[in-house]
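Why run this: before we spend reagent on co-expression, it is cheaper to look at a predicted model of the complex and decide which construct boundaries make sense. The entries below are exactly what would go into the expression plan.
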Amino acid sequence: MRYAMVVDLDRCIGCRTCAVICKGHHAQPEGIWWNRVFVPGAPEYGTSVLNEEGQPRMEFLPVSCQHCDDAPCQSVCPTGATYTDENGVVLVDFERCIGCRYCMTACPYGVRQFNWGHAEPLPGTDGATYSYGYPAEYRQDGRLVYTPQRPEGVVEKCTFCVQYTSQGIEPACCAGCPGNARIFGDLDDPDSEISHYLEGRETFVLGEEHGTHPKVLYLKSTRGIEDASALLDAAGAGTAMGTDGE
Amino acid sequence: MKKLMSKKQLGALVVALIIMAAGLAAWVAQLTTGLLATTNMGNVFCWGLLICMFAFCVGFGAGGQLASSYIVLSKRPELQRFALPAQAVGLGGAIGASVAIIADLGSPENILAMLLHLNVVSPLAWDMMALTFFIVSSVVGLVALARSWKSARAWMIVGAVAAVVLQIIEGMLFALLSARVWWHSVIVPVDFLMVAIVCGSALVLAMAAVSGHGGFVDAGVDSLRAARSLGKLLAVVIVVHVALALAELGMLAIEGTAASRATLDVIATYAPLYAIELGLPIVAAVLLLTRGGKAGAAEFGAASALAIVGMFAHRLMLLYPAFAAPTLFAGLSNQPSPEWAYPMSTGQYATMGDAFAMTQAYLPSVVEWASILLPIGCAIAVALIAIAATKALAK
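The model came back. Tokens follow.
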């Protein structure tokens, strides 16, 4: 089993539902975001940038933990709090994390978040405490990898929704994405949705120069390219993208 | 204690313990109120002043040991009385570094995991082992010198090896991280060693300059002679350190990547601090090389102070270009474009604060400045107690 996620940049509309639903499902304290979406280079959110020929372009790029095969955060962790499970998912054991933040310095993607303080409960509309997130702690082989009551002074990050995927439910960001831009599954299973989706398609990864071998794979956007329809036809994605005359 | 310490030493110990207590109070405030409320760190700038102090103390630790080993092994008569104090300061620096790194942990209550689940491929694990080995060898070396063991010279060799290993590993702790271009260089571990030698030489030079004035080191007629011989060494090592620092800067400029350009921008922003890091030691080296033969105690003391302040600035500049510069860059996926920095979550809980940012302007808080008093006070106290202990151990 080798879990991975594909992010199809042609399908991402920059709505940030993935970031918000992720925050909600994981009871992320204020200030902590496991998922983020920006237009690289844009001075403000949702504005365009200029390519090298001076033409305006806009491309949303969702970024979360890349669940690297060669995760630098894991190799530098002095206590083994960060580890890769049997499904290839990089997790953090809150009870082993000493809060040295060495993993945060080692991660080139800036996805690791530190619990800098004691998160105050959010007030609900009725004045009572607003309760959100997966309500129970989740342990994998006895190791605490999720709890809605976040310990102070530990590092956290995307878990590929381990509490859901262990029950056969897809990650929240995939379920919530209105454009179906995120596809999750087992790369080792040729019949999985992700394997089918990747057939004949060329992917790229972020920060390739770091040699981390991420398991979050990106499909290039075809927008703004003159022969976009030809590329789509070649990829067999014309129907999926609604470019067949609908 | 009265027999083992002069009144001034006893007074210094009391001051060191008061400093420690103040630092301890600041650390307790961090633990109970949270790092968010008491520090100015965030997800972008996630290592702060305590890490800077850790690196500074560990340089002093290794530097003190290297100076002590050099004095004993070189057999230079004018330097011999500085061997024990240098060894004691080396031990104090190492203990201070250990305290600093523990005080910086977010969850010190989980520290037992460092023993029960040690990840031996982590440079931080190597660092812990190297620091432990160094402290043990430093204590044994101190006893060997105090008791005039026949094997004292052998223990000084062991101590020097431990100091070199510690500094190389310390440098690798930073240099192995490809995410931070400012650190990811083979020069860094070598320069860590040079910085340690600068610290050790400056320390003994300062001792020679003030010997007889504080009762910390026995006064002798050869103080200025000792200062002159060490001054030359300090000047040469400063020149090597500056050359390595400039080589690192040059390599960064040649690299030409988006990350290296962003790092150079940060260095330009913090140019005054960088100027202090390089400028003050250069002034010290020039002073020592041009006035070395005629310089008096005041000039040697000034040269030591300039070098040490420069090394502290070096430790601060270890952090700023690494953390104030972005690490993730992305361009358009389907056509040629520049590589742009990509924002990250700040981790701040502030209602009106930025949730995401490319960079973070870090200025240590009052509590952070107070918290570094813990390792500083601890290092001074350990050094003073070690000096007193050697008197008790002396045959």
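Chain A has one domain: 3-117+132-235. Residues 3-117+132-235 of chain A form a domain with the Alpha-Beta Plaits fold (CATH 3.30.70.20). Bring this page to Monday's planning discussion.
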